[in-house]
């Protein structure tokens, strides 16, 4: 990834108090049933009373998160909207399928079907922000958010003029989805408390989560505090492939291991996937390592929350004298995809979280 993406604003709605960053992890929100649901924001501030009545929860989350990101970046209308999602509007999809069975494919209300389509949130965001520019949604399971970032990088590289790109991701958790995936062995059985996730490495499975995250990204460094400098997407990941990709990333950034200040890794407590991070641990020996899936749970676009968290960690440091400037994010999803995202601090401006 040669074209850097400079972060002007970042907003997340997650199982933690992330929408208002001053409350983030004060205290850590936990769950003991194997499910972490996102904390709702005041959606009525961003959506009209007429429209909000017919919207599902994920639609309200996505639109509100996107509009707040634009507000904090002082961008009224973005030049492009790019999102990634692994499952889209699951609630609306389930509602439509259940009605189809109940009514035996008879006269059905199409609203749930229309709002369950993956690109429906993009359309609403475009209407609210009056954006008539490029609009794209990526649906590629665990690589959905990363492909949205990659598309934004290519779009930003096409012009030397300033450009503001709204990039985000969204996925929701439902009870039906949880039960179906439990049969596939996705979740720990019995369920463990989220703050105990890494204390049961002998158990298969992890905990479920959801959330939505949006960034306003630019090709101009001025007025930003952090940049996404490098991105690598790994297909059919193994411990060796991920470790090699990490070495390649460091080489491209002209960095040594000791230049990395923080490593944020997507370990999810699943004993069957723990081996994937062994090569990473060996490569990053001595680098302070943080985990994040006890905060947000496992879902297709958890890397979006992790990117928000990474930017938050870099922005939290206000003093140039201190060293927190380079962060590498490494995430792996259940179905085999992995990604590496390198972020670095551009300035010590007050972050627009």
Q: How would you characterize the overall build of this protein?
A:
- Helix 2 (57-72) runs parallel beside helix 5.
- With 353 residues, the chain is of the alpha/beta class.
- The protein is built from eleven helices and ten strands.
- The model has no long low-confidence stretch (mean pLDDT 91).
- It has helices spanning 49-52, 57-72, 90-102, 111-116, 120-129, 144-157, 175-183, 239-252, 278-283, 293-296, 302-316, and strands at 5-13, 80-88, 134-138, 164-171, 211-218, 226-234, 262-265, 289-291, 326-332, 338-345.
- It has a ten-stranded mixed beta sheet, sandwiched between helices.
Query: Helical segment tally?
Result: 11
Net shape: globular
Category from helices, strands and their pairing: alpha/beta
Write the H/E string, N to C: EHHEHHHEHEHEEHEHEHHEE
Q: What share of residues is helical?
A: 25-40%
Tell me the Rg in angstroms: 20 Å
Briefly characterize the structure.
By secondary structure, this protein is of the alpha/beta class. Helix content is 31%, strand content 20%.
Reconstruct the topology from this structure:
Elements: E1 5-13, H1 49-52, H2 57-72, E2 80-88, H3 90-102, H4 111-116, H5 120-129, E3 134-138, H6 144-157, E4 164-171, H7 175-183, E5 211-218, E6 226-234, H8 239-252, E7 262-265, H9 278-283, E8 289-291, H10 293-296, H11 302-316, E9 326-332, E10 338-345
Parallel strand pairs: 2-3, 2-4, 7-8, 7-9
Antiparallel strand pairs: 1-5, 1-6, 4-5, 6-10, 9-10
Helix pairs in contact: 2-5
């Amino acid at each position: 990834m040669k074209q850097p993406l400079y972060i002007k604003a970042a907003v997340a709605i997650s199982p933690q108090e992330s929408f208002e960053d001053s409350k983030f992890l004060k205290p850590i929100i936990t769950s003991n049933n194997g499910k972490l649901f996102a904390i709702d924001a005041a959606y009525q501030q961003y959506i009209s009373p007429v429209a909000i009545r017919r919207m599902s929860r994920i639609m309200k989350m996505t639109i509100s998160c996107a509009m707040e990101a634009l507000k904090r970046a002082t961008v009224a209308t973005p030049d492009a909207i790019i999102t990634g999602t692994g499952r889209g509007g699951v609630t609306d999809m389930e509602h439509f399928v259940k009605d189809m069975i109940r009514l035996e494919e008879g006269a059905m209300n199409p609203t749930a079907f229309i709002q369950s389509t993956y690109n429906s949130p993009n359309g609403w965001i475009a209407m609210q922000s009056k954006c008539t520019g490029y609009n794209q949604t990526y649906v590629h399971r665990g690589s959905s958010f990363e492909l949205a970032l990659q598309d934004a990088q290519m779009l930003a590289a096409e012009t030397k003029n300033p450009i503001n790109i709204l990039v985000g991701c969204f996925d929701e958790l439902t009870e039906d989805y949880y039960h179906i995936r439990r049969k596939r062995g996705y979740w720990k059985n019995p369920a463990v408390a989220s703050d105990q996730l890494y204390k049961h490495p002998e158990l298969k499975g992890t905990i479920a989560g959801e959330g939505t995250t949006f960034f306003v990204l630019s090709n101009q460094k001025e007025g930003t505090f952090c940049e996404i400098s490098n991105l690598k997407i790994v297909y059919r990941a193994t411990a060796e492939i991920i470790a090699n990709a990490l070495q390649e990333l460091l080489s491209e950034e002209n960095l040594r291991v000791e230049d990395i200040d923080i490593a944020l890794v997507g370990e999810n407590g699943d004993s069957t996937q723990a081996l994937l991070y062994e090569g990473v641990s060996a490569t990053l020996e001595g680098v302070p390592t943080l985990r994040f899936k006890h905060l947000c749970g496992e879902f297709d676009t958890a890397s979006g929350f992790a990117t928000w968290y990474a930017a938050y960690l870099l922005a939290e440091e206000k003093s140039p004298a201190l060293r927190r400037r380079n962060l590498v994010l490494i995430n792996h999803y259940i179905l085999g995809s992995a990604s590496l995202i390198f972020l670095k601090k551009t300035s010590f401006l007050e972050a627009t979280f």
